[in-house]
Amino acid sequence: MKDPITISVTGAAGQIGYALLFRIASGAVFGPDQPVNLRLIEIEPALPALDGVVMELDDCAFPLLREVVPTADLAVGFSGANWALLVGSVPRKAGMERGDLLGINGKIFTGQGQAIAANAASDVRTLVVGNPCNTNALIAMANADGVPNDRFFAMTRLDENRAKSQLATKAGVHHSQVSNLCIWGNHSATQYPDFTNAKIDGKPVTEVITDRAWLEGEFIPTVQQRGAAIIKARGASSAASAANAAIDTVVSLCNPTAEGDWHSVGVCSDGSYGIAEGIIASMPIRTKADGSWEVVQGVPVDDFSRGKIDASVAELLEEREAVKDLIPG
Ligand code: NAI
């Protein structure tokens, strides 16, 4: 049996936490021979609820679960973390704009970035789920002195999964037949689910779904607005599907990507595809055999795609400007 790895999860008493922790502890993320320690971070008022979650983890008697540490202390919470899953933040409520969230949540991520730098394992990787996740990841990265920028990720996998599901339904195929689906830009209503490069059974989506009006006028807004549609229907934001996407993201970053395919995740831009350097933007990513990742190069960007990507990048630049006081140097 391998040595345990340590996973820190913020917002552990929240609804995504509740859908996420049990799957990590069961082995669904890191495999059936990888023991895990969980460090569960919450704000003080949520610690009683977190105790209940810990009791339920105990009651599962998971063979792979070793230590569980609930805490409101960031130094304790990120101690030795190999993965930091930053889920905790104030979720968007009906009628609330993402811009409102920036100010409320941005400050959380300065302290968490610093605490990760000071306490986590030297190989720590950080996935930000809490919204606005791209800019929160940027703030955490900028405050995590000494941790390389390529260890910070923002979750756009839920958008990728949503997009694959919509395309599969329209084409009458199973969603596993949809590949090469890239979400570009921000995890927000400006995100661009790129149907121009996506494939169904290896064929361009545009050859399988010839209804361009649907692709441009229905598919894109449906994916962009899916989060809002779920809030409207459920009275709460997506949780099980978000936890599932966090798992998919970590699994995709820990295992080599299938030849010719890619996955979507927000990473620190190196300027590829004309995306402003230094912002956290979603783009096509491949995980290599050695466990490192790279931006897939040479994905065609036509005029339609260019306009959509540029609009989402412009929003990310606005977000960065709005939180510039939280970004040192
Ligand atoms: P929730 O409100 O059920 O849980 C959030 C938890 O975070 C609460 O228990 C709260 O006490 C905790 N929290 C707040 N501030 C904290 C801090 N400073 N440190 C540690 N914990 C803190 O919310 P839910 O549904 O679990 O969503 C969490 C976040 O994930 C939200 O920001 C939501 O918008 C985001 N989200 C992101 C998605 C994505 O695709 N990137 C998809 C769905 C949700």
TrEMBL record:
Keywords: NAD, Oxidoreductase, Tricarboxylic acid cycle. The keyword tRNA processing does not apply. It catalyses: (S)-malate + NAD(+) = oxaloacetate + NADH + H(+). NAD(+) binds at G11, A12, A13, G14, Q15, I16, G17, N105, Q112, V129, G130, N131. Its EC number is 1.1.1.37. Substrate binds at R92, R98, N131, R162. Residues 156-325 form the Lactate/malate dehydrogenase C-terminal domain. The active site is at H187. Pfam families: Ldh_1_C, Ldh_1_N. Residues 7-149 form the Lactate/malate dehydrogenase N-terminal domain. The keyword NAD applies. InterPro entries: L-lactate/malate_DH (IPR001557), Lactate/malate_DH_C (IPR022383), Lactate/malate_DH_N (IPR001236), Lactate_DH/Glyco_Ohase_4_C (IPR015955), Malate_DH_AS (IPR001252), Malate_DH_type2 (IPR010945), NAD(P)-bd_dom_sf (IPR036291). Belongs to the LDH/MDH superfamily. MDH type 2 family. Catalyzes the reversible oxidation of malate to oxaloacetate. NCBIfam families: MalateDH-SF1, PRK05442.1. This is Malate dehydrogenase. It comes from Haloferula helveola. The gene is mdh.
